[in-house]
Each structure stands twice: as C-alpha cells, then as structure tokens.
C-alpha cells in the first residue's frame, strides 16, 4: 500500500517538474510584455477615498470576530487537554496540538496583535507570514491524524 503512494508521489513530482520546465521553455524568446496591476479595477479617486474611510471599521469588525474566535478556540484547547488527560491517546494529543496551532493562528491573525507589535499598515512585516505557517502546521497535523 505504501509503495503505491510512493509511486503516485513520484509521478506527481515528475508531472509538476515537467510542467515547470515546459513553461520555462515556452517563455524563452518571448518579448517582455508590459506588466499590469494584479487587479485591474477601475476605481475613481472618490471611490478610493470612500474605501479608505471604511477601512478602520472593517478592521474593527475583523478584530472583534478574531477575538471571539480566539476565545472559542481556547475553550476547545482546554476541552482537548482534558480529554487527553483522561484517555492518553495519541489522537487526543494530536487534537491538542491541532487546536493549539489553530489558537495561535487566530491570535496572530488578529489586527489588534498587529497594532501592538507595531505593524500599522496592511501587507507589511513578517507577522503576516506567521498565520499561514500556523495554518500549514495545523493542516499537516490534521492530515496526520486522518491517516491514523
């Protein structure tokens, strides 16, 4: 059974590498095209000002929702810790680790934490990479538990 997964992983790797090589080769000799903004929205300056005025309200709502998520997930961590103390199974320990990674994600993704750490603008600083790393960790733990 494991051999089948290994063969599938090798085939998938070959496919991805082949796609990357073919994309690189097909772009050779192509003239440089002008770059466009990632989202080619036609926003008037007035609309942009209106959106800029609404941004603090959106961040406030996001902060409240993220804080509520943190409280709920903290209670989930406590529940899983109590289950692990009673049962001692590795599955329960995995759920504790998953819930903890998820809790750290909700804390780090909260705009209030960004302000406390000094990142006032959206899109700047290493603090914006950490939630994605925690999501990666939580997903890996959940996949591991699902494979058990």
Give a short overview.
The protein is 76% helix and 0% strand. With 148 residues, the protein is mainly alpha-helical.
In whole angstroms, the N-to-C terminal distance is 14 Å
Beta-strand percent range: under 5%
Number of strands: 0
Total helical segments: 5
- Shape field: flat
Q: What is the helical fraction, as a range of percent? A: over 70%
Q: What is the SS-derived class?
A: mainly alpha
Rg computed from alpha carbons, rounded to a whole number of angstroms: 22 Å
Major beta sheet summary: none
Order of helices and strands: HHHHH
**Uncertain stretches:** none
Global mean pLDDT: 78
Detail the topology: elements first, then pairings.
Blueprint lengths: L1 H26 L17 H43 L2 H19 L2 H6 L13 H18 L1
What would you say this structure looks like, in words?
- The protein has 148 residues and is mainly alpha-helical.
- It has a domain at 55-148.
- 76% of the residues lie in helices and 0% in strands.
- The chain contains five helices and no strands.
- The chain has helices at residues 2-27, 45-87, 90-108, 111-116, 130-147.
- It is flat, with a radius of gyration of 22 Å.
- The relative contact order is 0.07.
- The mean pLDDT is 78.
